[in-house]
Design a protein that fits this description.
Blueprint lengths: L3 E4 L5 E4 L11 H10 L7 E2 H9 L4 H18 L8 E3 L3 E4 L4 E3 H11 L2 H10 L13 H36 L19
Parallel strand pairs: 1-6
Antiparallel strand pairs: 1-2, 3-5, 4-5
Helix pairs in contact: 1-3, 2-3, 4-5, 5-6
Length: 193
Amino acid sequence: MARLTLNLLGGFRVRLGSGAPPFTLPTRKAQALLAYLAMPAGPAYRREKLASLLWGSTVETTARTSLRQTLYAIRKSLRGADPQPLQLHANTVALDPAAVSVDVEAFEEGMAEATPSALAESLALYEGDFLEGLTVQEPPFEDWLLAQRERLRELAVGGCSHTSARRARQKRLCRPRNGSSASIHSRSPSTGH
């Protein structure tokens, strides 16, 4: 089974199956559309909304045609995925959350958990800004993209601050006090002295 994996932090990388090499989608708008559907995966988006998001500067019929062609190109690129992640219906499009793994989702879950190990794993996923380097020159998409970048960057900075503060507290606890050469690690476990 070749599950779709999307890495959206630090650029756009897509692969089918674990350990498989990344491949590219045919256009930047195909990348943008797949990323939008993945944030989060699951909700069904009306085709009109997607068309205006990525082709808002064109006539509606042209925008809908462009969306249809882009969906066809994405589906063709993902033909080896099992199960098929792209859910196409007459008026809506969705990405099946059971068929896709998205690094942003794992990042957000770890940041919410906020344990030292979860924060470390999440911060390791943050390889750079969300969809770094991707532009499509459509104001509605660019506005959404900027908001996502800022939100995820703030989460990463908060995680770094939390991790740094924890390390600083640990250093203070382990540092000798009042000229004593004893540290927390050299105290007797039974008496604490």
